[in-house]
Amino acid sequence: MEKTTETATVNSQTGEEERMRDEYQKLIQTLPKESNWDGGYLYLYQGCWCPSLSFQGLISFQRHFQVDDTDVILITPPKSGTTWLKALAFAIANRMHYPLSQSPLLTSNSHHLVPFLEFNIYHENPFPNLENIHSPRIFSTHTPYALLPSSIKDSKCKIVYLCRNPLDRLVSYWHFIGKLRPETVEAISLDQLVDMFCRGLTAHGPFWDHVMGYWKASQEMPNKVLYLQYEDMKVEIVSHVKTLADFMGCPFSLDEEKQGMVEEIASFCSFDNLKDLEVNKTGKFHTGKQNNVFFRKGEVGDWANYLNPTMVERMEKLMEEKLEGSGFTFKRGFIYDD
Ligand code: PAP
């Protein structure tokens, strides 16, 4: 690029960045808000409770993201197995570039290799350069279906959605925020968190809108949206690795299958293996957040150790109402499953 053209582009981008920040500041003041666990707010934007941390990034992502037909977008409600799904998708898509013995997953947490669109890529920069990433590009987001940019919905790109039963998800989230809570902010009790959940006040929620939005999309467009559940993956991961590879457009060859590549990726990305990697035991994000906060127990049914019957009944009754007639059910773990 010519120097003058380059300078003009930079100036116009800086101007656009300033204009956006200004617009964002004005917009946020007009939105309904509720206190969040971290002392910040959840803002009600287009029907979604957005944490203040990701709000500006979400707007930039919605406006500026240029999707490619070969992109794969991994989408989850928080604490549903995002770290796991990112590792699997990365290992599957990059197996031609790196054998597992040299995988970047050995030295980087999967969140660094598959960044969030709203939290990382568009967090501060409305015009990130995403052109030099080799195909298939893999991105992730916690954004509900209704808020996705129409370019994603209208393109041929693939969406992989992973959700988890709300009871385990809530317990996982409670532990997670307990570790990240600023000292100046009072700890939130499980009772309070259940109450927030039932009022729809979860980051990127209401939770039921999140799971139902993608459920409906997967029913209408099964070739575009692959809908997965954490509990199914815990029961049988190998067939899920194959399904994921097929769906992402990088199926395993017969030779790879014979060599045991599918099983190798499944076991490489298992909770026990990833949790014990040095990078995930001691590594950190540039913000200081420790990688180990993404690995706790990785089990189904741990909610039974934390939630009392009143909390469970309240959440289950609400979920039954919200999911009624959809044909979708959660797997809650050993206590209620057949
Ligand atoms: P995020 O949405 O903030 O990125 P996410 O990775 O979705 O978090 O959720 C973390 C949960 O996934 C933790 O669950 P727990 O609190 O019930 O233990 C974490 O232990 C679990 N997890 C992380 N990696 C794996 C894995 N490889 N297999 C299974 N579960 C995993």
Summarize the structure.
It is built from 16 helices and seven strands.
Q: Largest beta sheet, briefly? A: 4 strands, parallel
Tally of strands: 7
CATH class: Alpha Beta
**Which overall shape is indicated by the principal axes computed on the Cα atoms?**
globular
Bound molecules: 3'-phosphate-adenosine-5'-diphosphate
Distance between the termini: 63 Å
Per DSSP, what share of the residues sits in E-state strands of 2 or more residues?
A: 5-15%
Helix content: 40-55%
Give the H and E element order.
HEEEHEHHHEHEHHHEHHHHHHH
Strand order of the largest sheet: 5-4-6-7
The count of domains is: 1
Please provide a written account of the structure.
This protein is of the alpha/beta class and 338 residues long. It has one domain: 3-Layer(aba) Sandwich (Rossmann fold). It has a four-stranded parallel sheet with strand order 5-4-6-7, with helices on both faces. A three-stranded antiparallel sheet has the order 1-2-3. The longest helix has 28 residues. The mean pLDDT is 93. The site of 3'-phosphate-adenosine-5'-diphosphate has 21 residues, from α3, α7 and α14. The site of 3'-phosphate-adenosine-5'-diphosphate (PAP) has 21 residues, from α3, α7 and α14.
